[in-house]
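Protocol step 4 of 6: structure prediction from sequence.
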Amino acid sequence: MRAEPVSLLGLHALPRTTSSLMEASPRPLPIAFRETEPRSPSLFSDRDAGTFFAPLPPRVELAPKRPTIGLQHLAGPPKDVEWIRKIIGRAESGAAGYDAVQHGAKRKTPKRPTAMTLGEIFAWIKDTPGQPHAIGLYQFIPKTLSRLVDRLELSDDVMFSPDVQDRLSDLLLEEAGLLDARRGAMSRKVFMNNLAKIWAGLPTSNGKSYYHGHAGNRATVTWAEFDKVMVQAFPARVAQNDVPAVK
């Protein structure tokens, strides 16, 4: 029996297609934005920061440490995930929150992103080549969004709601090492640096974005602010190893 995908907060399973997760092929992406996605420097006009997965240096793909068909094994106290989501949203999407669309997109979505289905989101991406398409609270870019949607086996008629965006981001938190951080097998600093390799608005332990200086990217929160939130997320469970700063 195949496990139902659920969120890190233990909410009800999402609607999904009937095809197997292992059999599902990645959603094809138009060549126009597969290789020529513009490198806009900011989500908002008054910010220099890049958004989700800045293009340079070479993107770091953090592979899951264990199979992830369904997310039941991530169920647990929600406090850590809620704190992490807040700091990512603050760094990436600002006041626009779940309805954020990358500032550099000349042709915006026809409706608020949260009022659109996944199918409508992908149609907007296909119909507006040659511009950035980072979208939502976590500023998903097309390639990443497609990969995560396929992993959760979500159909095109699923709404791009806050709940769905959260569940998609849960996969990225897992890839960054959330399970190891929860049980103390990964230090808070290492986990934070892993998150910074995914979201350009977060700082690494040297105080700068992992993608600092590339396409205008910079950290939009300080390391002290980031660490303060993560202490709230993991008050006593994370091993405090002395880990060298990211170069």
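Step 5 (inspection) to follow. The chain is about 30% helix and 0% strand.
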